[in-house]
Amino acid sequence: MKLIITGFSNSGKTTVFNALTGQALETTSYATSLAAAIDPHPGIVKIPDARIDSLSLKYEPKKTTFATVEYIDFPGITTSAAGGDISHNVKVFNLIKDSDAVVHVVRAFEDESIMHPLGSVNPVRDVTSFESELILGDLEFVEKRIKNIKHQEKRGKKQEETDKKLLAKCQAALEEEKSLRNIEFNDDEKRLMLPYQFLSTMPEIIVLNIDESDLNSDKIKKYQDDIETYFKETGQGVIPPVVILCGKIEMEIAQLPSDEAEAFLEDLGIDEPAMNKLCRVSYEALGLISFFTVGQDEVRAWTIRSATHAQQAASKIHSDIERGFIRAETVAYDDFISSGESMTAVKEKGLARLEGKTYEVRDGDIINFKFNV
Ligand SMILES: Nc1nc2c(ncn2[C@@H]2O[C@H](COP(=O)(O)OP(=O)(O)O)[C@@H](O)[C@H]2O)c(=O)[nH]1
Ligand SMILES: [Mg+2]
Fold first, then answer.
1. How far is Cα 48 from Cα 67, in angstroms, rounded to an integer?
2. Which atom from ligand 1 is nearest to the alpha carbon of 105?
3. Please, which residues have CB within 8 angstroms of residue 128's CB and are 6 or more apart in sequence?
């Protein structure tokens, strides 16, 4: 699963990427003319999970494995209002289409020495202009596709009517500057839309990158409210989560040895880095959940989409387990904890379940698959 970090230049994308990954990429803005020469920069990030921490303490395994997602850093999008080279956006759009969700970094920190491409700090305007760029990108795509269909028809090749109707519907919405995530589509239309990977249907997470001195300030609360209001007014209930953090501080924390990082957090009066929250929110936005396997060798979180059946979940571990699936011995993490972290107690209380192939695995299930090949 892959998330692309994007937004306008100097919003703090690379800073956030460094904070997430512990890498140390250079955090200066690239001129758009240089951007074309830069490759997307990936980084794998562990999803912090207190449940894995405590399972690992209990089982003392040789190895502990957390769930991961991948983040991509790349020079951000630009807008014609900023006089940028719009052709660069196509490259960003292709990367967005290749990802599973978008982390949109929005600048909320004031710093006169760092240029804002639109001349001033105004998070709501940035959110709106970003959305407009996505809509424009989709519109161009739809227009191209429609043109192509017409061209094919002229050459006597019959084209699918449902597809044509769908594209016309999308075009109409986009021309009214509506994101496609705010338009209702029936199941057939949704199926047809899937391969188009429309930009304005991507799950999005907003990161408000604030000044250290603004933590808990009314100004930031207002920014957040205004952003949420914008999505409420333009949309139909799909409000991207807004994560508030100070990228600069987070990057410093990520580059400290863990004991020093803890002391630093204590000084700041916060119990965990905001990056942990961003990771969890990312995981949720992707519709992902974790199930666990435990033992002396390894305690491990496995990533699946919510509503995945047990047999399919088993395939994450090994295709043999999927093929020879007999049953999934399942205990909810919370039941394990409330039974004093004892599997024997869990069984005595009747909280251990034997689940079949089509059981929908839940977040936090501790599973022992029985199989025969
Ligand atoms: N004051 C302040 N500066 C920041 C913050 N986050 C990033 N910056 C600075 O903004 C500039 C651009 O950051 P960068 O991460 O390269 O932005 P990008 O162009 O979006 O990748 C750098 O000089 C950063 O040090 C922040 O939270 N507060
Ligand atoms: Mg950057």
1. 8
2. 20
3. 230
Q: Is residue 296 in some structural domain?
A: no
In a domain, 278, yes or no: yes
Q: Is the CB of 246 under 6 A from ligand 1?
A: yes
Question: What are the tokens at 369?
Answer: 């698959």
DSSP string, 161-221: HHHHHHHHHHHHHHHTT--GGGS---HHHHHHHGGG--GGGS-EEEEEE--GGGTT-HHHH
Whether 252 lines ligand 1, by a CB cut-off of 6 Å, is: no
247 CA closest ligand 1 atom index: 27
Cβ of 75 closer than 6 Å to ligand 1, yes or no, is no
Average pLDDT over residues 113-138: 93
Backbone angles phi, psi at 209, to 5 degrees: -90, 105
Report how far ligand 2's centroid is from the alpha carbon of 52 (Å). 32
Residue bearing the CA closest to ligand 1, atom 3: 248
* Domain of 193, in residue numbers: 2-285
116 lines ligand 1 (CB under 6 A): no
* Single-letter amino acid, residue 192: L
Distance 10 CA to ligand 1 centre (A): 6
209 in contact with ligand 1, CB cutoff 6 A: yes
Same domain, 68 and 169: yes
Radius of gyration for the chain, computed over Cα atoms and rounded to the nearest angstrom: 23
Q: Rounded to the nearest whole angstrom, what is the distance from the C-alpha of residue 239 to the centroid of ligand 1? A: 26
Domain count, the chain: 2
| 18 CA distance to ligand 2 middle (Å) | 10
Residue 196 CB less than 6 A away from ligand 1: no
**Which phi and psi (to 5°) does residue 212 adopt?**
-55, -40
In tens, the pLDDT along 262-316 reads 999 898 888 889 999 999 999 998 999 999 999 999 999 999 999 999 999 999 9
**Residue 218 and residue 82 share a domain:** yes
- The answer to whether residue 210 sits within a structural domain is yes
pLDDT in tens, 47-64: 999 999 999 999 999 999
* The token pair that represents 35 in the structure block: 């951007």
Q: Which of 28-32, 99-103, 183-187, 215-219 is the least confident region? A: 28-32
29 lines ligand 1 (CB under 6 A): yes
